[in-house]
Structures are given as C-alpha cells and as structure tokens.
Design brief:
Keywords: Membrane, Transmembrane, Transmembrane helix. This protein has about 220 residues and is mainly alpha-helical. The chain has two domains: about 150 residues; about 40 residues. Helix content is about 75%, strand content about 5%. The protein contains seven helices and two strands. The protein has a two-stranded antiparallel sheet with strand order 1-2. A hairpin with a 2-residue loop joins strand 1 and strand 2. Helix 3 runs antiparallel to helix 4, helix 3 packs parallel to helix 6 and helix 4 runs antiparallel to helix 6. The chain starts with a helix and ends with a helix. The N terminus is likely disordered.
Amino acid sequence: MAPVLNIDITCSTLFTSLKRFFQIVFAPWPSTYEPIKSLLNAPTTAEKDVLTATWRDRKLSELSFVGITCGLVASVISASFSWQPVDQIPWPTAGLWYGALLMNLTSICLATQQGVSLNRLSGYSDSLLRIRNLLGSQTAQYAHVIVVPHWDQLYVWQTPIMLLNVSVILFITGIVILLFDSLGSFNWTDRAVKIVVLFSVAGAFSGLNYLTCSFMLYRRTV
C-alpha cells in the first residue's frame, strides 16, 4: 500500500502545483474582478461611491498609460519594417508585424473610446450609480441578493491591455522568425549564428526575469 500512497501524494502535489501555477498566470483577471465585485457589494452607498470613484480614476489612469505605451510600441513596429526591404522579410514575420501593428492601433482606439465613455458618464449627477449599473447587476445567491460583475464588462475593460500584450508577443515572435530564417548551415563562425546565440541568451534572461517578476507580483493575489 505504501507505493500506491506515495504515488497518490505525488500526483496530488503535482496537481496542486499546476493549479497554483495557472492561478498565478491568470492572476490579472481576478485582480480586475475582485475590485469591481467589492465596489458593487460595499455595505453602504457612501462606501460604494468612494470605491466606484477610485475605480474610475484608476481605470482612466490605466487607459492613459496603455495609450502611451501603444504609441511607443507602434513606433517600434513601424520602424522595424525599415530594417530591410519588405520583400526580403520572411512572410511569417511580415504577417506577424502587420498583425501586431493592427492590434496595437485597435488597442489605442479602444483605450480612447473607453476613456471618453468614462468621462462622459462622469458628467451626470448620478454618474457613480450609472457606472455601477454598467458594471454589474443583482442576483440571488444562497438566499441573499448580491451584485455580480457582468462578464462582458470584465472582458471589455480588459481588452486594451490584452491587445497590447498580444501585439508585443506577435512582434517578438516575428523577430525570432526573422533571425532564425537568416541561418544557413549551423557554423559557429557565421555572423548570423553569433547574432542568434546572443539574442537567445538575452531572450532567455529577459523571459526568466519577466516570469519571475510576474510570479512575485501576483502570487499573493490568488
């Protein structure tokens, strides 16, 4: 029975570790869901108003930051097409870069649209109530009435940063394809091989730091 017990413990530990890992990977989602849920279910109207105003102001700041970042990323993507003639760029790289640029511009448009919408809502005397009605609705749960966030609204307010992240991933993927496409025979004396090796080292170091920082940042939020 001991070997079976050890296997069960090992499988349970592995499952727990994987569950924890994916919780951390998707931590930005609950970190968005929980503040909205809190402002919708605060015990008093005064607390709801304070939390709603805080969420609105923070969201406007986030959208402004996303817009600035998108502008910088878009300029980098556009400049990358001047590295060499477009007809000499591998077609997967060109396609990914065009797609990244399109997603980036879409992110800018959505961030602007959402910022304008929040500013217009703020012009009403009952603006905070209107924002809460937009974000959630009442539902019965365990004999209690609570307000739950609308899943479509959660998706909408995440879209600008999501598109920005995806555009960066597409751009980096295009760079990887561009570099490895330049390789001929693998010879350490070739210039292209040296470039790819140095790029791989820098990429591994950057990726490790990004994952580590993400883990340390979000591990206590799930």
